[in-house]
Design a protein that fits this description.
The complex is a heterodimer. Chain A is α+β, with helices and mostly antiparallel strands. Chain A has two domains: 215 residues, PmbA/TldD fold, CATH 3.30.2290.10; 228 residues, no CATH class. Chain A contains ten helices and 24 strands. In chain A, strands 8, 15, 16, 17, 18, 19, 20, 21 and 24 form a nine-stranded mixed sheet that branches. In chain A, strands 1, 2, 3, 4, 5, 6 and 7 form a seven-stranded antiparallel sheet that branches. In chain A, strand 10 and strand 11 form a beta hairpin. In chain A, helix 1 crosses helix 2. Chain A is globular. In chain B, 20% of the residues lie in helices and 42% in strands. Chain B has nine helices and 23 strands. In chain B, strands 1, 2, 3, 4, 5, 6, 7 and 8 form an eight-stranded mixed sheet that branches. In chain B, helix 2 runs parallel beside helix 4. The termini of chain B are far apart. Chain B is of the alpha+beta class. Classes of the chains: A alpha+beta, B alpha+beta. At the A-B interface, strand 2, strand 3, helix 2, helix 4 and strand 4 of A face strand 2, strand 3, strand 4, helix 1 and helix 2 of B. Strand 3 of chain A pairs parallel with strand 3 of chain B.
Chain lengths: 449, 437
């Protein structure tokens, strides 16, 4: 039985049990993983991660059950468990229906790379070793603390009682290094450098290692500066952690409907600097978060979020779309087969500007550059505060020195209005967003000095 | 070899609406093979004989293939073999739970939270039961089976006042049966969260800078775990963490004793045996300010030439065990909260931990939910919490008093793979950097 056969089998079983509606989601993933620790290979794993879940509705009451065993017998048991749970549950008056769609989704270009699918443990190991060697060669002071290299090949199938039945294969390669530099008995702060890609051809372990080593060494010999309020240049990852993360949460229709978004009533209003353009594009070619359909089987699409700082739209799954009497934007998301669908971005793209990082630095009279943010962002209120990691002080257009024990704090909704410039060098981040470096003014820089 | 079956039940109510009741099973087996000092690991969700045989072969071939590339040969030393079984002590086994009753409970808590004040605009109430059955078999002759049951819940509340939003979160839970819901009712956690969100909706953000502070017991647990505990994990010590080479040295104020206990009653990280079949023990990391020991797996214990402490844990059968904390805590002192505040002229009482991170140098940051101003020894107005940061060992050196309000809380820790841990402590007085405005 193929994966698609299994989800269709589950849906038919639920119908027989007397479900008003039902949906099955199945996943099969092969993962090859190399874990580095203290610059040594600590472990290597191959694992098959697979399972199926059933979402079942009976008179507006919802039941959900899953199993990691894909046999007919266990699938039947999961269907029965979901049915029993639906009966034990209380009705949700907001329930309208599972998604219905006539469109046939097509896979975007470049989300399956047979070269990744064919990788064996030793191949992944060799990639990890390349990165480890690059760290050493770049600078003797730098060393790897830990890291992980993961090649994943996955297949997802979804079917429901309204005729949705689809299946798709995809690959992704992700890797990270935690790097630290030491000099005269003093250690730098820990650098977290990563790469995530759909195709092996776009991966350079050497570059990853070099970047990690470079950042670690650059954060040696830190000095502190007195607290001030001013310009902060957020590199791609901190810009994603602070800005893109809050945007994603604020345009999530579930948060909007549940009064957890300060943008709930602001469609058509200017909520950010006019330099900011944002789209959510689930069909981006080679996109790390691209797919033909979302986690309810609804075709992916492109949704305008911010145009010249004006709020254009929200992201929906079928539940929030039904509630708002609109169409799903194809943004249903599940962490894996064990969870119910929520709403999340696909590829949230902050459109890049035209300046390189160097040009941006050269235009800063006084400020700091932050290469990693270790802190808390509260997307409801927009408050953020945390440590500026691998941060450097910038004066008269030049990076002067690494910064010691510096925190940044502010409000993201204000920061979005204070964006001065957006860089040209964008990348895929771990926040389901493609984000370029972003220069923000009027941020509080707190130091112990 | 390990076999692991995890049954999970989750009940979630969002803004008065019942989300689906979610239950499921994940089950599988894994093999870890050591050949000439080289590890290989493979797992499967299929328990058929041919698939289980295949993971042993896969693990062995990985171990052989990567051997030439490994610099260090792993030695596990020798340990006793055990044939034993263990089950979480409990009064109300959740396996026999009435699901409808749990659904009603979640709905009632949600109702109470939303009726707390007109400023409450949104809430989440979640209840979860995790029932793990673990089997361990080794070529050295161990056969261990354990059943670990965890029941926990959380309430997240959002309040709004004139376009300004504040949120708060409270949790309960332990390794035990459903009796925890009678002892520490979820309603109470809900009320606390509602009270805090309501109060903070109109509050301002605390100012930034270095201040004398009281850290609430919940945050002290985080500090013990994140900032100090990780530095004592032998794999990180080997990599040069802050505590490397510091056995016998003073690393904190003499008011501080820090323990990682594998058998803490009801601790979220409690197990009789770890995932290498080693009995867990109570490990003293810091005794009255002096560093005493590290947390070990069999591999690192052998490297350091000490006894393994039973700290090798794996999240599921998909992962090989790595060194993890179990229940990490700072021992209680004898101060009341009022006494802790007495000597503070201008400072804050920081309450409610959010997530945190730390480097193995001891540099840490945690979010806090609420900062209560302390003026001339008296608790005054509340501010919204801010992120705090510093070096944990500096913070611990500055501890001059520890409270008596000991609390062991539940936690999730992410170190390459996640796991359940206990974090404990009593409120204490120190000084640190607030990232406020």
């Amino acid at each position: 039985m193929s994966l698609q056969d299994r989800v269709e089998y589950a849906v038919r079983k639920c119908e027989k049990l007397g479900a008003s509606e039902a949906e099955a989601y199945a996943q099969k993933q092969r993962v090859v993983e190399i874990v580095l620790e203290r610059g040594e290979i600590q472990s290597e794993r191959t694992k098959i991660h697979e399972g199926i879940s059933v979402r079942l509705v009976k008179d507006k009451k919802l039941g959900f059950a899953y199993t990691s065993t894909l046999s007919e017998k266990e699938i039947e048991k999961a269907c029965e468990a979901a049915f029993a749970l639906a009966r034990a549950s209380a009705p949700n008056p907001d329930w309208i229906s599972l998604p219905k769609t006539a469109e046939t989704p097509t896979s975007p270009e470049g989300i399956f790379d047979p070269k990744i699918a064919e990788l064996q443990g030793t191949d992944v190991l060799n990639l990890a070793i390349q990165a480890a060697e690059a760290v050493k060669e770049k600078d003797k002071r730098a060393a790897i603390d830990d890291g992980k290299f993961t090649a994943a090949t996955g297949e997802t199938a979804i079917a429901n009682t309204h005729g949705i039945s689809c299946v798709e294969k995809a690959t992704v390669f992700s890797c990270y290094l935690v790097c630290i530099a030491k000099e005269m008995g003093k250690a730098s702060s820990m650098v977290f450098e990563y790469e995530i890609t759909r195709s092996l051809g776009k991966l350079s372990p050497t570059q990853l290692g070099e970047k990690a080593a470079e950042k670690a060494v650059a954060s040696l010999n830190p000095k502190s500066v007195p607290s001030f309020t001013g310009k902060v240049l957020l590199d791609t990852d901190p810009a994603a952690a602070v800005l893109a993360y809050t945007i994603t949460n604020s345009v999530n229709a579930e948060n909007v409907q549940r009064k957890r978004s300060l943008w709930a009533e602001k469609i058509g209003e200017e909520v950010a600097s006019p330099v900011l353009n944002v789209v959510d594009d689930g069909l981006l070619p080679f996109g790390v978060y691209s797919s033909a359909f979302d986690d309810e089987g609804v075709p992916r699409r492109k949704t305008e979020i911010l145009t010249k700082g004006v709020l254009k739209g929200f992201l929906h799954n079928s539940f929030t779309a039904n509630k708002a009497n609109t169409a799903s934007t194809g943004n249903a998301y599940r962490q894996d087969y064990t969870t119910l669908p929520t709403v999340l971005s696909s590829n949230m793209i902050i459109q890049p500007g035209d300046k390189t990082l160097e040009q941006m630095i050269s235009e800063i009279d006084k400020g700091i550059i932050v290469r990693r943010f270790s802190g808390n962002v509260r997307p409801e209120s927009g408050e953020f505060s945390g440590i500026a990691k691998q941060a450097s002080f910038i004066e008269n257009g030049e990076v002067k020195h690494a910064l010691k024990e510096t925190m940044i704090s502010g409000n993201v909704f204000e920061a979005l209005k204070n964006i001065v410039a957006i860089g040209s060098e964008t990348r895929a981040t771990l926040y389901r967003a493609y984000v370029p470096p972003t220069l923000v003014d009027n941020i509080k820089i707190v130091s112990k000095h | 070899m390990r076999h692991h079956r995890r049954e999970m039940l989750t009940i979630t109510v969002k803004d008065g609406k019942m989300d689906a009741v979610n239950c499921g099973v994940t089950e599988g087996a894994c093999a870890r093979v050591l050949i000439d000092g080289s590890w290989g690991f493979a797992s499967t969700t299929s328990l058929e004989k041919k698939d289980v045989t295949k993971i042993i072969e896969d693990a062995a071939s990985l171990a052989r293939a990567s051997k030439p590339l490994k610099k260090r040969r792993v030695d596990l030393g020798t340990v006793d073999a055990y044939e034993d079984s263990y089950e979480t002590p409990m009064h109300k086994d959740p396996a026999k739970a009435d699901k409808e009753e749990l659904v009603r409970l979640a709905i009632d808590v949600d109702k109470e939270v939303r009726s707390f004040s007109p400023r409450i605009v949104s809430d989440n109430v979640a209840l979860r039961i995790i029932d793990d059955k673990l089997e361990f078999l080794s070529s050295e002759g161990s056969r261990i089976s354990q059943r670990i049951v965890r029941c926990y819940g959380g309430v997240m509340v959002v309040a709004m006042e004139k376009g300004s939003i504040a949120s708060a979160y409270e949790s309960i839970g332990a390794q035990c049966g459903l009796e925890i819901l009678d002892e520490t009712p979820l309603e109470e956690a809900g009320r606390k969260a509602a009270e805090r969100a309501d109060k903070l909706a109109s509050a301002r953000v605390a100012p930034g800078g270095v201040f004398p502070v009281i850290l609430e017991n919940r945050i002290v647990g985080l500090l013990a775990h994140e900032a100090v505990g990780h530095c004592s994990e032998a794999d990180l010590v080997y990599g040069g963490s802050f505590l490397a080479g510091k056995i016998g040295e003073k690393v904190a104020s003499e008011k501080v004793t820090l323990i990682d206990d594998g058998m803490f009653p009801r601790g979220f990280g409690t197990m009789k045996y770890d995932d290498e079949g080693v009995p867990t023990e109570k490990t003293v990391i810091i005794d009255k300010g002096v560093c005493k020991g590290y947390l070990h797996s069999r591999e690192t214990a052998c490297q350091f030439n000490v006894k393994p402490t039973g700290n090798a844990r794996a999240w599921t059968f998909e992962y090989d065990p790595i060194i993890r904390m179990r229940n990490t805590y700072i021992e209680a002192g004898d101060y009341s909260l009022e006494e802790l505040a007495e000597t503070i002229k201008d400072g804050f009482f920081l309450k409610g931990g959010l997530s945190g991170q730390a480097d193995f140098t001891g540099e840490f940051m945690f979010g806090t939910q609420e900062a209560v101003k302390i003026r001339n020894g008296e608790f005054a107005e509340s501010y919204r919490g801010v992120t705090i940061s510093g070096n944990a060992f500096e913070v611990l050196k500055n501890v001059d008093a520890v409270g008596k309000d000991f609390l062991m809380r539940i936690g999730m820790c992410g170190k390459e793979q996640v796991n359940y841990v206990g974090m404990g402590g009593a409120s204490l007085r120190t000084k640190l950097l607030l990232g406020g405005r």
